[in-house]
Write a structure and sequence with these properties.
single chain, 125 residues, Multidrug-efflux Transporter Regulator, Chain: A, Domain 2, 2 domains, DNA-binding transcription factor activity, MerR family transcriptional regulator, MerR-type_HTH_dom
Length: 125
């Protein structure tokens, strides 16, 4: 599959795919005799995995480390699991921060509701 097709299928820009290749997230993209990238099934599975992990806010650095470990094989299973657990903890912390921010916004909105109701009462009197 050509880069334009992969880009369209996964809604990732061709520039992003090239960047992923350059930093080692997609290290083994085959090329045709004319130099055009030709993504195989394993490459597409990696793109899907990367997209999923990025959607979960896994950092590029962590993904790069994960892929380097993956390339080394089953001897890194425990390290890969630990890396994913660490990223899960980071995501949980971020979710907790966002929930606190949401509570603050809800409080402020309720406060404005009270102010609006009070202002409308004053205008009616």
């Amino acid at each position: 599959m050509r880069i334009a097709e992969v880009s369209q299928k996964y809604d990732i820009s061709a520039d992003t795919l090239r960047y992923y290749e350059r930093i080692g997230l997609l290290p083994h993209i085959r090329r045709t005799s004319s130099g055009v990238r030709d993504y195989g099934q394993a490459d597409l599975a990696r793109v899907e995995f990367i997209k999923c992990m990025r959607s979960a806010n896994v950092s590029i650095e962590a993904l790069t480390e994960y892929m380097q470990l993956f390339e080394r094989g089953d001897e890194t299973l425990t390290l890969r699991k630990q890396l994913l657990e660490n990223q899960r903890d980071v995501l949980r912390d971020r979710i907790a921060e966002m929930e606190e921010g949401l509570k603050l916004l809800d409080y402020k909105i309720a406060h404005y509701d009270d102010l609006i109701v009070a202002a409308e009462r004053n205008m009616q009197q």
